[in-house]
Design brief:
Layout (H helix, E strand, L loop, with lengths): L3 H9 L1 H4 L4 H76 L2 H12 L27 H13 L2
Length: about 150
């Protein structure tokens, strides 16, 4: 027959009935919890990356495009104003050339047209004087003449 002490002891130690110790049971529970927490952390990290990417693509990229369009609009408006000014100048020239005086002026300038009683004389401007003359005779005299000409227009 068994003693009463043994029965109490087995009743108070359930791990002994399962033939495992309380320490090994705790390790199994901690190992399962550790594995579950790693999986939870991994899933959380992946979810955070996916949500962050979605927010970036839905909010940040369209805002960047929106502000970039503002710069493009300003540049294009400046270019439009410049082109409108050029078109205005060209339209004024077209209107002038549609008159008889404008046609005659264009013919004189571009084709060398001479009216009855006009005498055509072509006067060419003086060419630019060279400024890199060598030292010595006769260039000293020429240099003096050139400096006199440039100082007294």
């Amino acid at each position: 027959m068994r003693s009463r002490r043994t029965r109490i002891r087995r009743a108070t130690r359930p791990a002994a009935d399962r033939r495992s110790s309380a320490i090994s049971t705790r390790k199994k529970i901690q190992g399962a919890a550790s594995s579950a927490s790693r999986t939870t952390i991994l899933i959380g990290a992946v979810s955070l990356i996916v949500v962050g990417t979605a927010i970036f693509s839905v909010v940040v990229l369209p805002l960047q495009s929106y502000f970039g369009q503002g710069d493009d609009i300003a540049r294009l408006e400046t270019e439009l104003a410049r082109m409108s000014a050029i078109n205005g100048d060209l339209q004024a020239e077209v209107n002038r050339l549609r008159t008889n005086a404008g046609i005659e002026e264009a013919a004189r300038d571009q084709l060398g047209y001479v009216s009855d009683g006009d005498v055509r004389e072509t006067i060419l401007p003086f060419p630019d004087l060279p400024s890199d003359l060598p030292n010595g005779w006769p260039y000293g005299t020429i240099d003096a003449v050139m400096s006199f000409r440039t100082s007294n227009p």
